[in-house]
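Deviations from the work plan: none for this task. Representative record:
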Amino acid sequence: MDIQDFFAQSCGRWFSQRTSHHLAFKQTETGQSQLTIELVAVTDPAVIALCEQYECDPALASCGARVSWDGTMAWDEEKHQGSTVLVTIPDAAGATTGKLLREVGYAEKTPVAGKYVMGEDGALTLITEYETMYSEERLWFASPNLRLRTSILKRFGGFSMATFCSEIRLGVTKPPEQTATAVASK
Amino acid sequence: MDIQDFFAQSCGRWFSQRTSHHLAFKQTETGQSQLTIELVAVTDPAVIALCEQYECDPALASCGARVSWDGTMAWDEEKHQGSTVLVTIPDAAGATTGKLLREVGYAEKTPVAGKYVMGEDGALTLITEYETMYSEERLWFASPNLRLRTSILKRFGGFSMATFCSEIRLGVTKPPEQTATAVASK
């Protein structure tokens, strides 16, 4: 699976169950949200504008997507809504690593370019370094309809939070599909 | 990191925060436990007995460990205590894959041999197939003092549960150690 396949398979509507383990406090916070992921053509004005903001050549962009979310976290009970555009810029033609541009940073509200690594095991790793913060996120598909994510967040050099999301594709009439290794198929 | 390194680094006492996402019910269950992991010599009577139970040659065992836990899950509020012995039998000398023998199955109480794969990225994957159940677990170290685990469980061919554990080493006086990539070291 390459980065284009990963983006294509991520498209659609997802129900996301999210759990954050606050490591210093030994406490758990849960939340739920709906995610909508749509592909955006690399020639789209939103992609070009984002590339220009990061001083990247838009002709090098390999993938574009718009991610929208609508959810709640237990502690503040506020609605969390928003959307962002993501663009990938491979390090070289055919490279499995590159830059990830986002309109809004994952943990801070200032634009920041991350790094991505598309692993041989089909997992996508995203690394974002902020001035006082470091986040590493791993996303992978357990099946076409079940996507999992973990992330760890460091602040000032110490681990502060570990987060897990399980994301079930919405709009499929049966439960998340089994993979080729499912026991029922044996 | 090979399987021996992974076992050695796992030794000690850990505070484990556990979250299970019940996928069909879209519900979350949390729990906490203390884990104690000790190495057991491959010549130990417990290792030899386990190998014989699985009809494996004890001389092929590469690692042994005893894992004890003491915790609670929110839904039943009962104490969950127990311990198990684990033994690894590589597929060949120096192989990164092999069999994992356990006294007590992870999800069922009958002995069952699993498969392990020690990945190049330092993550250990454990796969256990039961008659009506399939579990795949991934364990990795974010740092020497922070171990993360995810698992997915299928019943009758459909995904039923996704679980995440963050495990902080106990008995260290400072927060979980930063890795080489920590921002503070830059």
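The first strand of chain B starts at residue 12 and ends at 22.
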